[in-house]
Write a structure and sequence with these properties.
mainly alpha
């Protein structure tokens, strides 16, 4: 390796060591290189000093930040508690609907077939009717969930505007 490539690799590993960590082989290589190369060892010392000095800089936080954060967390927890019973009811209703749908599918199929034969409706039409019979409840549930999501999005929008 050329001398510049070696130094660039060492500097990259010094930075990587602080953020991601190094593999054992990279750490061994870097330690050996830092013992031999004064400029890279100086770079490592300066990097450590700079990071330590950054850790000691006080950061002024806005007044009332903790109180506002606690308030918003409390509001969000309250919203989640309010929506939980409705969602639970929706999941229970969906489960019951699915179970009764599976249990009654053969009977509903025969009913549609019988109605189709007696009304003279083509087979494709009554089969499509059977499919819609099962799709309509799912579509209604999807509309309910989407409207609830839109309502929550609207609430978040107004909360953000009030900041």
């Amino acid at each position: 390796m050329s001398e510049n490539v070696v130094h660039e690799r060492a500097q990259q590993l010094i930075s990587q060591e602080r953020i991601e960590g190094l593999s054992a082989s990279e750490h061994t290589w870097l330690a050996a290189h830092l013992q031999e190369c004064d400029s890279c060892a100086d770079f490592a010392r300066k990097t450590s000093t700079a990071l330590r000095s950054l850790q000691t800089i006080p950061i002024a936080l806005p007044a009332g930040l903790a109180e506002r954060t606690q308030f918003r967390v409390g509001m969000r927890a309250q919203q989640l508690r309010q929506h939980e019973p409705r969602r639970r009811v929706l999941w229970i209703a969906a489960g019951i609907s699915w179970a009764t749908g599976v249990a009654s599918a053969p009977f509903v199929w025969r009913l549609f077939a019988w109605l189709g034969e007696h009304a003279g409706v083509p087979k494709l039409v009554w089969e499509m009717g059977f499919g819609l019979w099962w799709a309509v409840p799912a579509l209604i549930a999807a509309v309910v969930l989407l409207s609830e999501h839109e309502k929550q999005s609207g609430e978040r929008y107004w909360l953000q505007r009030s900041q």
